[in-house]
Amino acid sequence: MLLGSVGGGGSLLAVPALVYLGDESVRGAQAGALVVVIFSAAVGSVSYLRRDEVRWRAGLAFGAAAAVGALAGSLISRALNPDVLLLAFAPVMVLGAAAMVSERARGESSFRPWRHGVAGRSAAKVVVLGLAVGLLTGLFGVGGGFVIVPALVIALGFGMTEAVGTSLLVIVLGSAVALAERLHGGGIDAGTIAPFALAAGLGVLLGTGLGDRISTTALTRWFAALVVLTAIYTGAQALTALA
Fold this sequence. Notes:
Layout: H1 2-6, H2 10-20, H3 26-50, H4 56-78, H5 82-100, H6 120-140, H7 145-155, H8 160-183, H9 190-213, H10 216-242
Helix pairs in contact: 2-3, 3-8, 3-9, 4-6, 4-8, 5-7, 5-10, 6-7, 7-8
């Protein structure tokens, strides 16, 4: 529902849920969360495509850069303690929540679609931001929507709706690369992940409908509060494990 309504956040909750409620290992939960996010983002993108709210050219460039960053992040992740990763993930969650409720996130679109011409400065921003988002995707095993949407809105001037639609395309590309790298280290628990993914696919359809009926600002604030609470819990659990 978070992916469908605000374009991100599903994996922010999916990783801790799979670890603490699904009894998955941290790395298993990261791989499983990527499967869930890829499936639900693909489902959710359909309605935005129909409404022409996906900026294909910028989205594909952002996604290609994110894929490169995701590969690098996945390789770095292998060398780190899983509890250290969870602890580092907590402040990233808080920063993502803060960005989504910022003043700029409520502004109108000022992005010039690339079908009308590509400015060099705009292209450079897309590539740099894509690499950074991909690094987070690979490092923490998250789809990155909670970072992609603020990046598209604040740094590139997207309107919230077109940012949500475009983020779903980027999520599929970046997450697929991160997942492919992770699957080399072992499979996933299909018995847990398959029903989770199917439920997420239904949830994203419900979330898209919810986003059409309820204020995006209100949804985003509720999402941000939920992310902060989850970050506090995740950080506390990781600190306890390390201690």
